[in-house]
Amino acid sequence: MVEATNFVEKTLGKSLNPDENLNKGNTPEATPKIKIPADIIIPIDTPPSQAVQQPVQQQPQTIQIIQQPPQTIQIVEKVTYKKERIHGFFRTLTIIALLVIGFLMLGESTGIIQLSINSFKLHQIFPIIIILSAIIIRSYKWIFGRILWLIIFLTVFGGLFGIEVYTGLNPSSKRKWWVDINYSLATTNTTTETNLYLNTLIANSYIEGNTAGIIKWTRNSDRNLLVSLGSTGTNQNISYINLNEDNNRNMLQNYLSKIDLTVPKNTTFDLLYIKNFLWLHTIDLNTFQRKTLKFHAGIDDITIKVGNVLPWNKIEIQGAAANVTFEIPKDIGVMMYYKHFIGMLKLQDFDALTGHYFQSTNFNSAKAIVNIYVNLGVGNMKVNRVDAK
Questions:
Q1: N or C: which terminal CB in the chain sees fewer CB atoms within 10 Å?
Q2: The pLDDT value given to residue 372
Q3: What is the extent of the structural domain holding 12?
Q4: Whole-angstrom Cα distance, residue 14 to residue 33?
């Protein structure tokens, strides 16, 4: 064992005892270097604590500078705002003006007021006002403005058309609150005519003939129904009956006249004239005879039952917005003129002619002919052919 130790010490050149090596001056630096071949890779584990940390690079901070807009931009914004306010103000005035015009047209149509300055009719300039107002309202950039423009334009234009239709047969003489109608008639001494006039503002009426020789009516309203009987003219004998609704009231009050009118069955009426602004009417012409029926309607639902037909009978209906229904026997021929601005027409057994004329298919073989003239603003008309009674 000792010999082996001595052999190793002689070979390595140092003692195997550490203490002796320190005494002899053998330091770690004196230890001979061992060459490691190049093809041998010795892995070296680096503890986490000894890992090399990369320095964190700090981004340079940029300073934001808020620049104030130039003074000229503020001035332009103020001017634009003022223009928009002025534009909106005039648009509002335009809408108010249209509403006022609508009420004036309503008053003129009902005979309450008459729009004229030195005999100049103001309704003649309504189209100009409508066009200018439509241009201003059309300037709205959003969809509501477009819809508002269309509604107001159609309403006012339709109202203007309706007023022209409604007042187309206005009588020559008027009173402020109701209408007395005088038509020019023949001036022979032998002329005798019987006329019936019914003038109301808002009414639900039913007119029929009866065997009684007097005119009677029932009404359910706070309005006064003025009745006048008599004759006019110096060279003619005209029996006329006027039933005029007293409109000397507040227009905003809710009044409705419900009238059931019975006329003498044995009397032939040369003229039956009805003028009403709003509501329902049923006229049964099966039970009395008449030569001419004229109906001026505002916004009405009208039902006319055609029965007894005299030679050259004529029915005229003019209205702003009306729903008209005719009940005509199948053995009566019809020559009809119909025209509307917006509406619908339903006919049964009719042939269309030129110029808004229509003729029933039994026109040449009918026992009697009735002539019908209808002119509506916004309307719906239907003709039903019924069995003869």
A1: N
A2: 92
A3: 1-30
A4: 15
